[in-house]
Amino acid sequence: MSAPLIDKYRKMASFDWKKLKIELEGEDYIKAKESVIERMKADPAFQRDYRVLSREEAREINFRRWKSIIEWGLVNDVYSDSEGFQAMHEVLESFDQGTSARFSLHSSVFAGAVKSMGTERHAELIKKIDNNECRAKVYEPG
């Protein structure tokens, strides 16, 4: 794999960019992002496809990526781990805005609306939402 294009400019910097990154983001946040990136690299659903995709193909890829995210069992709850959630969202946003939007809609908007009701009768529904057994209907193939 070739070095990122930004490496050329990092070498020319008059300061230690790694220290700046740690100062701005924090070590835990950086590790959380790196964990997501490594999972994405290892998951076939996240392999780049540079063709111009039809709407149906784009939706299918989005669904497969979403399914992978749920199977990873990382963060899908902004309330229980806001830093991990933000790291996941940031990585997804830089890679695939469609999957990032789906992640936000499901985890923040849909799940957040149900969780904010805060009643005991929603507990089972919240479990299903967190396990992706119940989801906001964005698109599902078939």
Automatic annotation (TrEMBL):
Q: In which pathway does it act?
A: Lipid metabolism
Name the GO terms of the biological process aspect: fatty acid beta-oxidation using acyl-CoA oxidase; lipid homeostasis
Q: Its GO CC terms?
A: peroxisome
Tell me which domain of life the UniProt entry assigns to the organism this sequence originates from.
Answer: Eukaryota
The molecular function GO annotations come to: FAD binding; fatty acid binding; pristanoyl-CoA oxidase activity
Q: What is this protein called?
A: Uncharacterized protein
